[in-house]
Design goal:
alpha/beta; six-stranded parallel beta sheet; 12 helices; 10 strands; about 35% helix; binds thiamine diphosphate; binds magnesium ion
């Protein structure tokens, strides 16, 4: 799959092109299409329902040429997106066969956002995915086998069968912080990781995600403000997928673009079409570079659509059908496939077919392995929740530098309150 492609087929890259200009509010907008519709609440047969109003007839936008990606990298991202989608389809089947313990959350329609953003991270950078970012986990080094075993709560899964969905990470090798269910909390955690790295004398990119619903939380504000003031290398991707469970984004916030939130924190705000992997990558790459230069956080709003219900139990009947139809035409993988095969001709149709077959073959092997692997032993159920000191040595990866010993003269006077507390 990684065999080099003939050079003659690669068109010139647009490296060196000037950066996009910011609008009057300082927001950079990468999009080639600005949809003009809104979801409104109506009453139908005495029940609340939603309808779309506005123009949905515009042509499907092309993929925006990347300023940074090589042809080979485009194909890499395409492969990650395919793996992401096909793995979720496999998980859906495993769920229907009763083999998944708990629910399944899908990132259908959001694969470009997950895969192309995480693709901008280096090994030393950190990632904190949320439930729809299984593609980001794949790019940062977890295998489809790991993820399927996790959903099936198998003994060999990342949490050894003790969690049944996405609450796992790897703070030792892959630099992945586990998702936190309380929406918004990961932003503060990632700001903290960036701060820890700074105490070690380095600047890294710390990427996490929040939804259009989750960005309404108080912790979003507190964490982002802290990161902005401290100039921490946070790369915050706000996934505006139009729904927070069954709440349309029109009922969630009154501003037009969530990237405008950045203005209030004094940080750059960027809008991308979350279904265009090139736009997502370029914005993420620039935000990661800014983080690594120690210049502080960036907020990237990725506009797209959650193409399934909140989770497998939710049929999303509250979503107006024209909205699904509109975004179906803007499918991130079909458009990217067209871009690499037909527009750029970096893959022939036969190479494309072989790539898809390869992904499916790999997934089948991973699924069969996961399915055949054992469940955890009952006796171990209570283990691993708290470290009792026998499972592993606790070695903080990030820590304060040893503070210098204070001289008596430099020691500040204790306040009355501090003395009282002794
Ligand atoms: C602080 C908090 N409030 C509520 C919830 C329950 N909850 C989990 S997911 C979800 C919807 C989130 O919507 P959004 O942030 O738009 O993300 P999406 O599901 O669209 O990716 C809600 C309300 C939660 N987990 N944490
Ligand atoms: Mg949402």
């Amino acid at each position: 799959m990684k065999k080099p492609l003939p050079k003659k087929r690669f068109a010139a890259s647009s490296k060196g092109k000037p950066a996009l200009a910011a609008n009057a509010h300082g927001i950079v907008d990468y999009r080639l299409e600005k949809p003009d519709y809104r979801v409104v609440e109506v009453t139908r047969d005495g029940e609340v329902a939603y309808e779309v109003r506005g123009d949905m007839s515009g042509p499907v936008p092309p993929i925006r040429q990347s300023k940074y990606l090589t042809p080979r990298q485009h194909i890499d991202i395409y492969r990650w997106m395919l793996l992401n989608r096909h793995m979720e389809a496999a998980l859906e089947n495993l769920y229907k066969q009763g083999k998944v313990v708990g629910g399944v959350y899908f990132g259908l329609g959001q694969e470009a956002c997950s895969c192309a953003s995480a693709y901008a991270l280096r090994k030393e950078d950190w990632l904190a995915p949320m439930i729809r970012n299984q593609g980001s986990l794949l790019v940062k080094g977890f295998s489809a086998r790991d993820i399927m075993m996790q959903y099936m709560a198998k003994a060999g899964s990342p949490t050894k069968g003790r969690d049944a969905s996405s609450h796992f990470g790897d703070i030792y090798e892959r630099n992945v912080a586990a998702p936190i269910s309380m929406l918004g909390d990961l932003i503060g955690v990632m700001a903290g990781v960036a701060l820890g790295a700074r105490y070690q004398g380095r600047n890294i990119a710390c990427m996490t995600y929040i939804g259009d619903g989750g960005q309404s939380t108080g912790i979003f504000h507190e964490s982002l403000n802290f990161a902005a003031v401290q100039k921490l290398g946070l790369v915050l991707i706000v996934e505006n997928n139009l729904w927070g469970y069954s709440t349309p984004s029109e009922h969630q916030f009154a501003i037009k673009d969530l990237a405008q939130r950045a203005i209030a924190y004094g940080i750059p705000g960027v809008i991308v079409d979350g279904t265009d992997a090139c736009q997502v990558y370029d914005a993420a790459q620039e935000a990661c570079e800014r983080a690594r230069r120690g210049e502080g956080p960036t907020l990237i709003e990725a506009k797209m659509m959650r193409m399934k219900g909140h989770a497998i139990h939710d049929a999303a009947q509250y979503v107006p059908l024209p909205l699904f139809e509109y975004w179906q035409k803007r499918d991130p993988i079909a458009r990217f496939e067209n871009y690499v095969v037909k527009v750029k001709k970096w893959l022939t149709s036969a190479e494309d077919r072989a790539l898809i077959d390869d992904v499916e073959k790999q997934l089948e092997a991973d699924r069969n392995f996961a399915d055949a692997s054992p469940m955890p032993a009952a006796e171990g159920a209570a283990g691993g929740a708290y470290c009792d000191g026998t499972c592993h040595a606790i070695k903080p990866k990030y820590g304060l530098k040893e503070p210098k010993a204070r001289t008596a003269a430099a020691k500040p006077k204790e306040s009355a309150a501090a003395v009282h507390l002794k």
